[in-house]
Automatic annotation (TrEMBL), chains A, B:
Residues 1-87 form the HTH arsR-type domain. It comes from Henriciella barbarensis. The lineage of its organism: Bacteria, Pseudomonadati, Pseudomonadota, Alphaproteobacteria, Hyphomonadales. The keyword Transcription applies. Gene3D superfamilies: Winged helix-like DNA-binding domain superfamily/Winged helix DNA-binding domain. GO terms for molecular function: DNA binding; DNA-binding transcription factor activity. This is ArsR family transcriptional regulator. Keywords: DNA-binding, Transcription, Transcription regulation.
Length: 104, 104
DNA sequence: TCGACAATTAGCTAATTGTCTATTTATGAG
DNA sequence: CTCATAAATAGACAATTAGCTAATTGTCGA
């Protein structure tokens, strides 16, 4: 949990996650979108991977990263539940969980 | 946003927030629940205050902290919305927003 | 095998973090 | 005014972080 929030505390890393919303992208493709060196981006990827927020697969020369939605979901909603919000699955229209007012 | 996630990345600070769920508590009362020095706790309070997650009021010799629910809510749900979750207000039974499957 | 390319690792610096003890500030009681 | 209590500030220190350049590893095409 701490490692997830730590990972989310950097704007570059949050933007990487957003870039992965619609599918996997290579390390180079991701790095190209930011104004920092490749090794620096590689370190950011490592933080995200260690937090479990992304997973990587090697394909030829490239490494592709993809979002681990469920980890993001569990951290965000798991914490929110502590404060009385409630995850709802029942009325979902898009397939992702819903967080609703809890009885907590 | 970064400062909120940074604040949430420490377990001590998350527990402080949880302790404030049911109402304000003094700095001493909060500090007493943890196994670190008062000044260390004071630093944690400052991080939470700078992130906007808590506010403080002085009452006599004591300082009382209370949760700023809306800031927590906006950070958590604002970020979640980026990933297609949707905040719902309509079916809430406890008065807190609901996060549901988005069309995003 | 050689060269180019993609990505990570190594090694470094500067800045930030979490922790401590000691000190200071502010309030209230006698 | 003086003392005790609550909390924050100051100053020190070890550990971590984000960033860089340079070097290394792995994979392909010629």
């Amino acid at each position: 949990m701490s490692s997830v929030f730590k990972a989310l505390s950097d704007p570059t890393r949050r933007r990487v996650l957003e870039m992965l919303r619609d599918g996997p992208k290579s390390a180079g493709e991701l790095a190209g979108a930011f104004d920092v060196s490749k090794p620096t981006m590689s370190a950011h990827f490592a933080v995200l991977r260690d937090a479990g927020l992304v997973a990587s697969e090697k394909d030829g020369k490239s490494v592709f990263y993809h979002l681990q939605m469920s980890v993001l979901e569990d951290a965000l909603f798991g914490f929110a539940q502590t404060f009385g919000w409630e995850r709802r699955e029942d009325i979902s229209t898009t397939g992702r969980p819903v967080l609703k007012e809890g009885k907590a």
